[in-house]
Amino acid sequence: MSDQKLSARQEAMLEFIDSFMQDNGYPPTIREIGKACDISSTSVVNYNLNKLEREGYLMRDREVSRGLRLANRAFQGSVVRVPLMGRIVAGEPVPVPDGDFSVFGDDEAIELTSDIVDPHDDLFALQVKGDSMVNDMINDGDIVIMRPHRDVKNGDMVAVWLSDREETTLKRIYMEGERIRLQPANPMMGPIYVDDPSVVEVQGRVVAVIRQM
Amino acid sequence: MSDQKLSARQEAMLEFIDSFMQDNGYPPTIREIGKACDISSTSVVNYNLNKLEREGYLMRDREVSRGLRLANRAFQGSVVRVPLMGRIVAGEPVPVPDGDFSVFGDDEAIELTSDIVDPHDDLFALQVKGDSMVNDMINDGDIVIMRPHRDVKNGDMVAVWLSDREETTLKRIYMEGERIRLQPANPMMGPIYVDDPSVVEVQGRVVAVIRQM
DNA sequence: CTTGACTTAGAACGCGCGTTCGTGATATAA
DNA sequence: TTATATCACGAACGCGCGTTCTAAGTCAAG
């Protein structure tokens, strides 16, 4: 419908706006677009911008300098910055972040996109050290994205601290009456049964696992 | 050194610039910053902006309206769109994309950030179906990010099609003279030895694995 | 106290930049 | 031909917005 009604000039404008934003971090002015696309008059640029806006290729804020943004990038920009809190070792508890989380000044963090994790959660990331959790489909060097536990439901993949074994592990948790069953993610492995619920401390729920090579 | 020399006003300015850019897609003006942070004079905003620039928190383009960008976000913005080609099943070969890759119009794709994968590679993603590769630390539902194989080096994690078994699997590959050794990622599992190299077809190299829950 | 560095304030200058208007060229339809 | 729509041009208007200058209020060191 509004397909390929783009003139060569309009297509050049879109491409220039995209690269300009990539280079400078802010949109170009009408005159900058005109100079880059060999358009002598600002009104022509304005005319084509209105046309592109009507066809949905971009959005404009009237009476605002550089007040335009590409529509393709509308749903982008939703990049979540997850602080990398440290490492998770089998013999140590999970370093859960303090109450106050400083958005700025995090030198170590991981950027994820919104289709992997929910941007509204207060997430934190941990890198797995050692291969003690290899039976839980977690390898050495993997990065686990975790959310501080609020409500633990049966079947959730959680990081638990077993105080009697002094060991941290990632398992699926099931409350079976008095007993707690910790099921490895690997279906070929058997579960762990804990009769005393007090030795199981749920540190957080695992939202995602990322392995780079 | 340049640590916590930020006044409350400067911190508020940074936070406002960040949220403003998120909302509008372009940076605010000096007067917009002043109004949001209760600064009556434009020169004060200009003064603090210069200070923040000198300390490395942002970059300014002089004589340019809205000519500023946050330094933290300098390396961001590089969101890679990886097309999700389909599913990888143990009994079927990997659907490698055709030569022409259409950047636009991909309804199914995954967005990753540049610190997970290299934006310059021609990547594609596959979702693992079935738990036949559970011994390779790959679970049902996992998403593997792959790069079409160019040069396969020893130790690379690759997707191979074993024509004699009619099976696809993810293994680390090692050329040992005439013999090829396929090592599972799980160190508790033993390797597969293939004496006839013609039955091993390398489909691509695994760059990353993502598991969502 | 005085001195000097740091921060805030207000006002004015002047170009930047979106907008609008009038005009004209081209094209397809009646 | 005339009529209507689309697209392009140049000029002018006027507020937007970065810059600069002067002045003053802090605060710690001397």
Protein model, in words:
- The structure is a homodimer of 213-residue chains.
- Chain A is an alpha+beta fold and 213 residues long.
- Chain A folds into two domains: 8-74, Winged helix-like DNA-binding domain superfamily/Winged helix DNA-binding domain (Arc Repressor Mutant, subunit A); 79-210, Umud Fragment, subunit A (Ribbon).
- In chain A, 17% of the residues lie in helices and 33% in strands.
- Chain A is built from three helices and eleven strands; from the N terminus they run H-H-H-E-E-E-E-E-E-E-E-E-E-E.
- A nine-stranded mixed beta sheet of chain A has the order 4-3-5-6-11-7-8-9-10, with no helix packed on it. In chain A, strands 1-2 form a two-stranded antiparallel sheet.
- In chain A, a hairpin with a 4-residue loop joins strand 7 and strand 8 (167-176).
- Chain A is elongated.
- The relative contact order of chain A is 0.12.
- Residues 98-107 of chain A have low confidence and may be disordered.
- Chains A and B meet through strand 4 and strand 11 of A and helix 1, strand 4 and strand 11 of B.
- The structure holds a DNA duplex (30 and 30 nucleotides).
